[in-house]
């Protein structure tokens, strides 16, 4: 069984191109993971935030900034990806090291695949195509 994860860094995602401008107006694919969910490719959007963002408004609440960042990215990109048969994975983290729930799920799956590959002789692990 081969279980590597083919991916491409900063790929052009044509369905996010505005025809009137001839260029992409949305950039949810920092990494495109091929065949991630069923036969769907996944647009992975990496987002780092300060955990102190919005601190003045509501006071400090642990993980609040990273959860808000994840939510905003889903709101902005998930529908466009879904409409074009792609999955959307917001990989949000804060500078204190907190990860949003979807980031934890994504990285846990990558860890399982990489572990599985390194415990078999033919294992390849995660690779990115330039």
CA gyration radius, whole angstroms: 16 Å
Element string (H = helix, E = strand): EEEEEHHEHE
Largest sheet: 5 strands, mixed
Structural class: alpha/beta
Report what the structure shows:
The protein is an alpha/beta fold. It has one domain (5-122). Helix content is 32%, strand content 30%. It contains 3 helices and 7 strands. The strands form 2 sheets. The protein has a 5-stranded mixed beta sheet with strand order 6-5-4-1-7.
How would you sum up this structure in a few lines?
With about 130 residues, this protein is α/β, with parallel strands linked by helices. It has helices spanning about 55-60, 65-85, 100-120; strands at about 5-10, 15-20, 25, 30-35, 40-50, 85-95, 125-130.
Labels describing this entry:
130 residues, alpha/beta, 5-stranded mixed β-sheet, 3 helices, 7 strands, flat
List the helices and strands and how they pair.
Layout: E1 5-9, E2 17-18, E3 23-24, E4 31-37, E5 40-49, H1 55-58, H2 64-83, E6 86-94, H3 101-118, E7 126-129
Parallel strand pairs: 1-7, 5-6
Antiparallel strand pairs: 1-4, 2-3, 4-5
